[in-house]
Amino acid sequence: MDRAKIRLCVDHPLGPGQAVPLTPEQAHYLFSVMREGPGARVALFNGRDGEWTAEVVAAAKKGGTLTCLGQAAPQLDPPDLWLIFAPIKKERTDFIVEKAAELGCARIVPVQTEFTNSQRIRQDRLQAHALEAAEQCLGTFVPEVTDLVPLRRLLDGWDPARRILWADESLVGPAETLAGLAPGPWAILIGPEGGFSEPERARLRALPFVTPVSLGPRILRADTAACAAITLWQSALGDWR
Amino acid sequence: MDRAKIRLCVDHPLGPGQAVPLTPEQAHYLFSVMREGPGARVALFNGRDGEWTAEVVAAAKKGGTLTCLGQAAPQLDPPDLWLIFAPIKKERTDFIVEKAAELGCARIVPVQTEFTNSQRIRQDRLQAHALEAAEQCLGTFVPEVTDLVPLRRLLDGWDPARRILWADESLVGPAETLAGLAPGPWAILIGPEGGFSEPERARLRALPFVTPVSLGPRILRADTAACAAITLWQSALGDWR
């Protein structure tokens, strides 16, 4: 069947004939903002069961119920890739989260570095941004956005089985090819405006699970570097192959 | 010498001892907004002669003069890559121009397609945006932004020696590798929200100089697709190798 235009992410199992309740916010969006009602077709996904076409069977001001009719798309999980980035200005941080969700990251980890401009983030707002990106781009998976964590503490507890691809802004030569890298769990690390401090750089260089990579001869903003690094990783090791 | 923090793009030759006049807008920015004056060091570039460190020797309300001291960075031209894209919402169009300038495109060509939302663009505003991206990212080259042109007319007069890499949103399978593509002049073509119309798609498919490419199994917004396609091209055929 045709995929429904309105897409909602729900926290509920999806399956044949499954009844799915709406939250007050979803009911408000669907019935007041979009002016839909009983009989309307909506696409639902929950991050596990793919996309389902569902029909509104009950509509109220603060809730409602849908019934799943059939699966419209299978579940598409991203590869085991995390994005670690230092939050920058609000709209560019939003942008990084949106692009990481679109390009296929499994987890988004904001880190505080010595030169990070922001001391705190609104984790709930960034998580909502990742969800919105999935809703708008026909995704069936929403990456988890974690709380802001100091880079030092993140590296202290790091599982060395997950390798880190470090977009090292001091390497302005030609980008190494990523084709030779080993498959498996990875994280991409993007620094803040102003880059990493010298102690941070020394620690990263010394870690055996960290691979520095250049992103070409031009200096890229952090949000551009995030897009470019995820793209290169996806085409070399991810599910774009 | 250390690279100056303030960077200006000028339309004037740069060389040893060269005197460079400022426009009224640049004088306003430098002397009123940034509160600089005689003796201040500024980085200048003109798109041809690299970056030069210059010193303010005369400051006035509507003008001023600098003298070039020495070259701080060589000229870095992008490869012969154009980006053709259908303008979308204002902030995302701005974003595409900024990212194309950062990632290294030589020319940016907005096209009108059957499903293009905007009927017109502010070419001067987009050109200023490309210049600002170069100024802020230590670039020495500013890609030309052309006027909006209908896709049909662009293809009618196309030089077949320049191949077109078409980000075909109907190809949602794995991205083909770009490594096998021939070097030479290229243009990347990104469609509007809603994609190309069936007649447009049929024409693109029939053109011998057009190569369709997939950007992975997820549906990408036009601005994300532009970033990803430029990145893949740069790492396969451009100056990121």
TrEMBL record, chains A, B:
Annotated Gene Ontology cellular component terms: cytoplasm
Designated name of the protein: Ribosomal RNA small subunit methyltransferase E
Organism from which the protein derives: Paenirhodobacter ferrireducens
Reactions catalysed according to its record: uridine(1498) in 16S rRNA + S-adenosyl-L-methionine = N(3)-methyluridine(1498) in 16S rRNA + S-adenosyl-L-homocysteine + H(+)
Similarity comment: Belongs to the RNA methyltransferase RsmE family.
UniProt keyword rRNA processing, yes or no: yes
A UniProt-annotated Pfam family: PUA_4
Residue ranges of every copy of the Ribosomal RNA small subunit methyltransferase E methyltransferase domain listed in the record: 79-234
Class of this enzyme: transferase
Localization per record: Cytoplasm
